[in-house]
Amino acid sequence: MAKAVLLLSGGLDSATVGAIARDRGREIYALSFSYDQRHAVELEAARKVADHLKVVEHQIVAIPAGLFAGSSLLRPGQVDTHPVPKQRTNAAMAVGIPSTYVPARNMLFLSYAVAWAESLGAQEIFLGVNSVDYSGYPDCRPEFLNAFGNAANLGTKTGLDPTTRFKIVAPLLTKSKVEIVQWGNDLNVDFSLTHSCYDPQPDHWDCGIRYLACGTCDSCTIRLDAFRLAKLRDPVAYLPSLNLLGS
Amino acid sequence: MAKAVLLLSGGLDSATVGAIARDRGREIYALSFSYDQRHAVELEAARKVADHLKVVEHQIVAIPAGLFAGSSLLRPGQVDTHPVPKQRTNAAMAVGIPSTYVPARNMLFLSYAVAWAESLGAQEIFLGVNSVDYSGYPDCRPEFLNAFGNAANLGTKTGLDPTTRFKIVAPLLTKSKVEIVQWGNDLNVDFSLTHSCYDPQPDHWDCGIRYLACGTCDSCTIRLDAFRLAKLRDPVAYLPSLNLLGS
After folding, report:
1. A90 touches chain B (CB under 8 A)
2. Predicted confidence (pLDDT) at residue B159 exceeds the cutoff of 70
3. What domain range is A99 assigned to?
4. 3-state secondary structure of A212
5. What is the mean pLDDT of each run of 10 residues along chain A (247 residues)?
C-alpha cells in the first residue's frame, strides 16, 4: 500500500480528496495547520474527518502567531479592521484576489507536506485546491502547482531520483463545486463532519458551544449553491435565519 | 529603508549574508528554525548574530518533532543509527548527497520566509546557500532556487504584481568557502559568534556548559580549510586535540 500525505483543512474539498486517496488504496498521513485562522473550529472538523478516513497519522502543525498577517481570514485583534466579506455575488467573487487570501499559505503547507512525505518515503501529496469556483487565490492555480512540483523535485533527494519523483495530486483542480459535492457524495464522504465557513458564530446550548456557519461568506455561499445544484442537503448547521438556504 | 527577510542559521555563511544585507541598507527580519537538529546550539549563535546585526525582529520557528526524519543531522534516539560522517576528504565530500541532508529543508525554510516577507511587505529573501564547497545538497543549487522563486512569484499576491516580485538573494551561491570567509571578514562579521559544527561536544567548565566544535565533521573540515587558506584565525573553540588546526 503506497503512503500519501493529505493536506486536510477540514473543509469539504479536502475531505473529498481524502476519500479519493482512500478509494485509490493509499495509506494516508494527514496534515493540518493551526494559524490563528478565524475558523479554527475547522481543525476539530479535520480531526473528525481524519478519524473517518482512518488515516495512519494526523499532525496538526502550529504556525507561529504573527507570521501570517494582513488577511481577513486571520483572527482580528481588538479592532476588527479586516472583516470577512459577506453576501458577495458570483460576479463580485470572480474579480481579483479576495481579502481572505493568506500570504503564501499553500506554498508553506505544501512544503511541510513534501518534507514529511520525503521523511515517510511517500511520493504523492493530495490536496483539495480548486481553480474553478473561487479562482481568486493565486496558490490554487495549476501554474503555481506545476511550478511548486518542479521546485520540489529539484530541491529534494526523492525528487532527483526519476523513480521516486513527487506528484502533487489535485483531483479537484478543474472541477466545479457541484461536481465536488457529487463526487464526495458518491464516495460516501460524511459532509456533516466538515466545516467550510470563514466566519463561524458561537451558539451556546445545553452541551456547551457549537459553531454555526454564517451562510453568507464566500465559502458558505459557494457551498450552499453547490448543494442546491446537486439537489443534496447540506448537513452542517447554519445560523437560524439561514436554515432555509441549507435545507 | 527596504525590509528584507534573512534565513539565519547561526553559521558563518548566513552571518556573512546578514552583513551583506546590512551593508546594502536593508532592514532585516531574521528567521531561524528549531528542528531537533543535533547542533541546536546554533540557535544561540543565531541569536547573538541577530543582535550583532541589529535586526528589527528575530523569529525562531519550531518545526514539529518527527516531521523531518532519516537525516544524520537530527538528534538521535536511544541508538545513534545515523552518526555524522567524520574526517572525510574533499574527494569523498564531493560525491553524492551526504547523510546530513534534511528532507526539503530549504524549501520549507524559504516558504516560511516568503510568507513572512509577504506579511511584512518585503520582497527580498537573503540566504547563505553555497553550491561550490559542498555541493551535495540538492536544495543549495541554483536550479532549485530559480524554480522556487518562480513558484513563489506564481503563488502569491506580491509575486503576481510585476512591481513587487520576490527576489531570492543568494550572494554566496557561487563563492568558495575561502571567498566567503574573506568577504565576511571585510564586512567585520564577528565569526566568534557563529557556529558551524554538525556534532558539537559539551564541555563542562566553571560557568556552565559550552559546546566545542568537533573539528572533523564535513562542516568543520570545510570551515577550518577556508580560514587556513584565508590566513585568518578561526575564533571558535574546537575540541582540545584539534586546537592546532584552528590556530
Report:
1. no
2. yes
3. 3-195
4. strand
5. 96 98 98 94 97 98 92 80 88 89 97 98 97 83 97 97 97 96 98 96 84 95 96 95 53
Q: CATH no. for residue B126? A: 3.40.50.620
**Residues comprising chain B, all counted:** 247
Residue B103 contacts A where some CB pair is shorter than 8 Å? yes
Copy the grid coordinates of residue A226. 453547490
Contact A157/B101, CB-based, under 8 Å?
Answer: yes
Contact B156 A138 (CB under 8 A): yes
C-alpha cell at position B119: 506579511
B128/B53 Cα distance (integer angstroms):
15
A38 and A77 Cβ atoms separated by less than 8 Å = no
Structural domain contains residue A83? yes
> pLDDT tens digits for B230-243?
999 999 999 987 65
Compute the average pLDDT of residues B195-203: 94
Q: Which amino acid is at B100?
A: T
ipTM for the complex?
A: 0.94
For residue B19, being part of any structural domain is answered with yes
Kindly state whether A65 is in contact with chain B, defined as any CB-CB distance less than 8 angstroms: no
In sequence order, which residues have a C-beta less than 8 Å from that of residue A236 and are 6 or more positions away?
A191, A192, A194, A195, A196, A213, A246
The total of structural domains in chain B comes to 1
Length of chain A: 247
Task: Kindly state the DSSP code that residue B6 receives in the 8-state scheme.
Answer: E
Whole-angstrom Cα distance, residue B7 to residue B119?
16
Which of these, A187, A138, A142, lies nearest to A13 by C-alpha position? A187
Looking at every residue in chain B, the average pLDDT score rounds to: 93
Whether B151 sits inside 8 A of A144 (CB atoms) is yes
Residue A144 domain-assigned (yes or no): yes
| pLDDT per position as a tens digit, B143-154 | 999 999 999 999
Q: Which residues in chain B have Cβ-Cβ distances shorter than 8 Å to A70?
A: 118-119
Q: Are B116 and A108 in contact (CB under 8 A)?
A: no
